[in-house]
Amino acid sequence: MVLLLNRVFSGMGFIHLTFGNIIMWMIAFILIYLAIKKNYEPLLLVPISFGILLVNLPLAGLMEENSLLWVFYNYGISQWNLLPPLIFLGLGAMTDFGPLIANPKTILLGAAGQVGVYITFFGALLFGFTICEAAVIGIIGGADGPTTVYLASKLAPKLLGATSVAAYSYMAMVPIIQPPIMRALTTPEERKIRMKQPRQVSKLEKIGFPLFATIIICLLVPASAPLIGMLMLGNLFKECGVVERLSKTAQNELMNTVVIFLGVCIGATMPAGVFLQQQSLFIFFLGLVAFAFSTAGGIMGAKLMNLFSKEKINPLIGAAGVSAVPMAARVAQTLAREEDKHNFILMQAMGPNVAGVIGTVVAAGLFISMLS
Amino acid sequence: MSVWGEAVQVFLIGFGTVLICLFLLQISISIFLKIVQTIEKKEAAKPVSKS
User: Fold this and answer.
1) What global pTM score does this model have?
2) What ipTM was assigned to the predicted interfaces of this complex?
């Protein structure tokens, strides 16, 4: 009887609970609070935080080989790396490349928005991270969650949890992080610059874009093919108009399913022993630096373009080059309207915004081809 | 080679290629769009068949 009771009690999680587990629960609760109460990326933070909770339940062993979360993680991210490209399929089906097609030069702002990736790459090396880890931390500055997950799983799987949570958290905090930088780097006159409304883009242009962009980008950076290929396939579903069912599935059912698995997998990579280390704090700090420099890079890129072009562009749209679609473009619009109530730059800001996604994928593809 | 040497190489090649890649993408898309617009103009100029 005593032996049996002893066995039951020693098999309970309470006895094996560590201080680290409790701190991770707190982090999970904070993320759940931010998601539910503050509406910060709820679609991702809810599954991520629940994944954190699950993986920090002692003796549950959900990340042990062949257990539930291990299977999700192993096949979804680690071994097959299936989930990030599927997210890109859904993103492509939801993205309108019209503003970018209407004004192709805004693609360059998507490149300028990657400055933070490379500055932080050096910053991370200074903090003692390896070169592969530094690349993964730098890519947080691209403000693109699935790309961060994809790169982390290829180059530094140990950092997947911290870098992904940092990327998604900062993406949700774009309206807080970006405006002070944008105000500091632009004058009120620059923020008042009005831009011509983008021209109407024809259906043929919209159909041709994903095909043409796939060929060009994948020829230049083949390592970016899984993400760019899926992004453009999703976009072709949306634009061609003959596969509405596939487009809707990619945007809704498939996307939602993949988001659940991706979120839980990311959370599952954060057991206390891995996450509660000094380097996680460094990652969060460096992620913020990356974000700030990417925002600054986009704005300075726009200012540089103004030196050479007759038609001036509002430098605020450069800040949208960090991806974080469509939040960054909305922030640019909000700041422009603060100076001039009748200034509408949202559509123009969407150009660099979607170009930022392409820029981040290209940067990640280059890191993979150089470092893996 | 030292870590910093490798890092500088990754930076120069990486960021340089991102810039070149997106620049090439911009130019090629502009050319592609010009071609599409020309085709569309020609299509629009064609007389509409009565049948």
Assistant:
1) 0.91
2) 0.87
